[in-house]
Amino acid sequence: MDYCEKHKATDTLVSGTTDAQNPFREKKGCTLI
Question: Is residue 19 within 8 Å of residue 27, measured between CB atoms?
């Protein structure tokens, strides 16, 4: 449990990711000209 408390700031499962770092984010939609 101590390990979890010490590393929760860098754990993406606990803290989540930003959109810029998320490799699974949805791609931008295409625009029609």
Answer: no
